[in-house]
Write a structure and sequence with these properties.
By secondary structure, the chain is mostly helical. The chain has 4 helices and no strands.
């Protein structure tokens, strides 16, 4: 009898699969942001800036020179950013749909 999978793992896999499927939309959204046709929310913009700074700067909550443990906080920050970008792509899709109705 197969072992049951916790609901949070299923949710995570579904979320990552959705983000992978919407990667083309993500690139379109970023292109429209740079061209000035779409404006991301302040939370998403701040999250991107924070994530880039946090991952690049060597001063972390858990030092990176500890092999695996030091990468956990960086991975968590990247995960939260990907989750936020997934929500932003849904917002972008709604924005595009409203633009087509006009």
């Amino acid at each position: 009898m197969p072992k049951s999978i916790p609901a949070r793992h299923v949710k995570l896999v579904k979320h990552l699969a959705h983000l992978f499927q919407s990667r083309r939309t993500l690139w379109q959204m970023l292109s429209d942001v740079f061209k000035g046709r779409y404006r991301m929310s302040l939370v998403t913009t701040g999250g991107i800036v924070f994530c880039l700074i946090y991952v690049v700067v060597p001063f972390d909550l858990l030092p990176d020179y500890i092999p695996v443990v030091g990468w956990i906080d960086d991975g968590l920050v990247l995960y939260l950013l990907l989750k936020r970008l997934g929500a932003e792509t849904q917002r972008y899709n709604r924005h595009k749909a409203m633009g087509r109705r006009r």
